[in-house]
Amino acid sequence: MRVLVTGASGFLGRAVAAAVRDAGHEVRTFQRRPSGVDGVIDVLGTMTDPAAVRSAVDGVEAVVHLAAKVSLAGDPADFERVNVDGTRDLLAAARAGGVARFVFVSSPSVAHTGASIAGDDATPASPETARGDYARTKAAAERLALAADAPGFAVVAVRPHLVWGPGDEQLVGRIVDRARSGRLPVLDSGAALIDTCYVDNAATAMVAALHRAEAVHGQAYVVTNGEPRPVGELLAGICTASGVAAPRWHLPAALARAAGSAIEAVWRVRPGTDEPPMTRFLAEQLSTSHWFDQRRTRADLDWTPSVSIDQGLRALAAAADADGHIRRP
């Protein structure tokens, strides 16, 4: 197939574009800067330009949509324009252009209310209860995508959970930077169980969704490694593999949530040059369990992860060594 992958200059987007290419498809990408992926055709543009979106879709048979504004803070209007309006324009262009399959890359945060998640399947996206502008607008965009599912236009939503791996700046980069500067606490005891998704697994799941779209259309699937671990253990593993000391200080989760709410209020009035050091959403993510039942995902998509967490940590350590990082004892 001729497949458009949006957002292919991002960490997961590059991996997905490469995986779709490796599956034998012709890949076109659409994002603001070159993807850096060999063997694909880059089309540069932004999701806020409907004409550019229509041009990118022209002539393709399938779309994997990753492009989004991803941040813990920012102007709510920017999230709305990119994540909601951009998705609406892309869906319209895809349907008008005769696209047959559309994979919307979502997030488990679209259905997260702040409470623990222990073995749930994918529950409906809820903009009304999602935490933060990113989750709220992704939830609204997922609703738009699944509502567009129709005969001849098979739409699937895939929610990869906490994607990480070598070169990741969204999760690994933030953890390492904060640990290095002593700003990464373990909330409560660090025993809350969370699951994550190694980047190679997330990418192959997108390809599986693309191939299975006509059989599983109209559905949402959470994708993880299926290996829940205590959050403190995961943070320590990522830090150690990246050559920095694991966090040793603990903070009550209730205090972190209160501090996150206060910082968000200040950030809305006087935003800093970087992301806030803590938000309520981040405090909830670090202190509540969130892992998911993967049986339906694996059966429906005919997919299983190929890289375990331990294998991923070894790959992370090898990449850190290659970059000249020195691991502390």
Concise structural overview:
It is built from 11 helices and 15 strands. It has about 325 residues and is α/β, with parallel strands linked by helices. The strands form 5 sheets. The chain has a 7-stranded parallel sheet, with helices on both faces. Strands 6-15 form a two-stranded parallel sheet.
How does this structure look, described?
It is a single chain. The protein has 329 residues and is α/β, with parallel strands linked by helices. It has a domain at 2-164 and 196-224 and 293-306: Rossmann fold (3-Layer(aba) Sandwich). Helices cover 43% and strands 16% of the residues. It is built from eleven helices and 15 strands. The protein has helices at 11-22, 50-57, 76-96, 132-147, 172-180, 199-216, 231-241, 253-269, 280-287, 295-301, 309-322; strands spanning 2-6, 26-31, 41-44, 62-65, 101-105, 117-120, 154-160, 163-164, 186-187, 193-194, 197-198, 220-223, 229-230, 250-251, 290-292. The strands form five sheets. A seven-stranded parallel β-sheet has the order 3-2-1-4-5-7-12, sandwiched between helices. The protein has a two-stranded parallel ribbon with strand order 6-15. Strand 4, helix 3 and strand 5 form a beta-alpha-beta unit. Helix 2 (50-57) runs parallel beside helix 3 (76-96), helix 3 runs parallel beside helix 4 and helix 8 packs antiparallel against helix 9. The longest helix is centred in the N-terminal third of the chain and has 21 residues, at 76-96. The radius of gyration is 19 Å and the shape is globular. The termini are far apart.
